[in-house]
Amino acid sequence: MGNGLDYEVVIAGGGFAGVYCAQSLAKQLGSSASERVAIVADHNYMVFQPMLAEVSGSSISPRHVVNPIRGICRGVNVLRGDIVDIDLPGHTLTLNPGQFSTEIRIGFKHLVVALGGIVDLSRVPGMPEHAFLMKSIGDAQELRGAVIDRLEEANLQTDEAAVKRLLTFVVVGGGFSGVETAGEVLDLIRGINRFYPRLARKDFRVILIHSGAHLLPEISVELGTYTEENLKARGMEIVLNSRVTSMTAGKVVLQDGRVIESHTVVSTVGNAPNPIVVNLIKRNNIPNEKSRMNTDATMRVQGFENLWAAGDCAAVPMAGGKVATEGAVPSPFVMKKYCPPTAQFAYRQGILLGKNLAHAISGRPEGMKPFVFTGLGELAAIGHRTAVAQIFGMRFSGMLAWFMWRTIYLMKLPGLDRKLRVMIDWTLDLFFPRDITLLRSRTTEVLQEVHLEKDDVVFHAGEPAMSFYVVKKGRIELRDDTGTVMSLGGGEHFGERALLSDRRWRFTAVAIEPTTLVSLDAKIFEAVSSASSSIHEFFEHSAQQYVTRQQIEGMIGSVPPALLKMTVGDVMSKNVVYLTQSQTVAEALAVMVEHPFNSFPLLDGNGKLLGAIQQTQVYDALKNGLAREATLDKIAPSQLPTVRTDAPIPQAMETLMRSGRNKLLAVDAAGALKGILTPIDLLAQRQALESTQGNA
Ligand SMILES: Cc1cc2nc3c(=O)[nH]c(=O)nc-3n(C[C@H](O)[C@H](O)[C@H](O)COP(=O)(O)OP(=O)(O)OC[C@H]3O[C@@H](n4cnc5c(N)ncnc54)[C@H](O)[C@@H]3O)c2cc1C
To answer: DSSP for 400-437?
Structure first.
């Protein structure tokens, strides 16, 4: 300690629990808080998540639902940085402050963990790559932009199927944020479609997919059903009892096999524990409830003197709560054992934790109080000036509930200026259409992953080439009118031929199984390949492999029929200089000096072909310390294209052309090396045949 970044209390997390804890602790400690307390968060603002859906629906400005932590946590130190590690026994946490600084350690005596949760979509193939989320302010802005973008694009489309796909919006998850988001998207589209006269007659679809039997499982079945009927009456399609099993950039596949074609899918499911918390729990054996840290009623983590937790990452006991009986039908009126992960709990926990901490660090533990709040109820705005509410056991819906929703959330929104700004946004929204400005700062996307299902098309022949691709997993076929030109699996790449020439795809690329591609923007590809001659040469060379059936047939057609009837074994050179695995590096060097080829076939003790050894591989191995006496089995051979000796010449010519190489190793049925076939062998055979014919 003593480097100026040591505090008595460090609060990790700048959300509801963290911010309100810092505020309340600062109030208790007075001016000494500026020396003793720090709040650490990866953003310098707090997001009021309950209003995110309204940002995506363009009824509130994004800036009005965020609050600078420095403004609302006066009197404590605000440290903006990404927490990358927490060393509990060492009383330090490690922070990544930004791109120009090295990691910084912050010392603490007491640590409050209020890091919330994350979204993990990895269980649904394609979702991490293609779904929009609803967790951060950026997510809400992205979704708003995407909805407007789709309308702009559809406005230019003439293909009906493409328009339909562009105007289909899918929201996954029928909980609060799913229902609110779907309602807002519907309102946004309804509010702005009159600006797109070409689309006015078209069918917009907003589809809400929920895995349960009724929407809003957090509240009563009646309100869930009311919500469903209300949304349906407004034109939303609701799919219940169904899960998304996979998705791509153009479609969603449901559990029952149904496919919905859409380019805009929002996922509000997939809440998962924060990995920093998961690590902390594992390393310190912290008691937990599905990775939420178990605390006592004062929010001290069970079994730890200096560790406290609140909010979504804490399992704080619910006063009077009990464990749900196995198999019992969940009821909103039966208290759960732990407080639910909601803002109304997180912020109240934060306030009480601040007070309890002040008592704990001032040596007055008897002043600490248990958390006794059990919830006021639930409220959800479902769009079109309608909300559903269940408060103190009473149920409301419609405009009254909506008015209540607005009043309560406005009261809870921190900062008077933000309250006023949101009030103004809401008032303007009553009289003016929603804003359709598409203000997106376009940054070049350097790397992106793309998930495809079987038969999905990456691009069509003739379209402009925009990216270079590497197959991460799965398989892609490049096709032309005559069939498959090339089949590419994991680790292989494509796209360089078009990017290095006329920037038009010559083939159609299709996934033949579920596939993930890593795509690199064309501009970056060009910049890299023009900056390095060796990379450029590599791609120039691999670009040779894309040969069409027409080119292959043209080449085969130019060969005399007598040659086409021959086999590889008839034409190949049988004098092959090779190396064996049991030879030493010194012996290999002697062979290389005598025969200055770039590569040599490598055989095992039985004459079976193992691959090829390049001269450069041997030099590199020596440079890396391999002894001259070491045998060649210490060097992993590279692969060269092979062909069977009994293969007909047309097949060998096709393999040669597709390989982009100038030689094929010829093997027998057992894989033993028998010869080598080069274009020179073919030419020599042709000449021999022609001169025989001439003599005759
Ligand atoms: C769209 C949406 C709508 C919602 N609507 C409602 C609602 O209507 N009513 C309701 O009660 N609840 C609602 N919730 C739930 C509510 O927002 C959460 O329960 C609440 O935010 C939890 O507060 P928290 O402080 O535990 O976590 P958060 O508010 O998530 O705060 C966690 C903080 O930790 C920071 N952090 C995380 N990892 C790191 C790291 N490695 N380094 C530094 N900082 C880090 C984050 O940036 C953030 O500042 C909604 C949630 C969402 C997503």
So the answer is: HHHHHHHHHHHHHSSSHHHHHHHHHHHHHHHHSPPP--
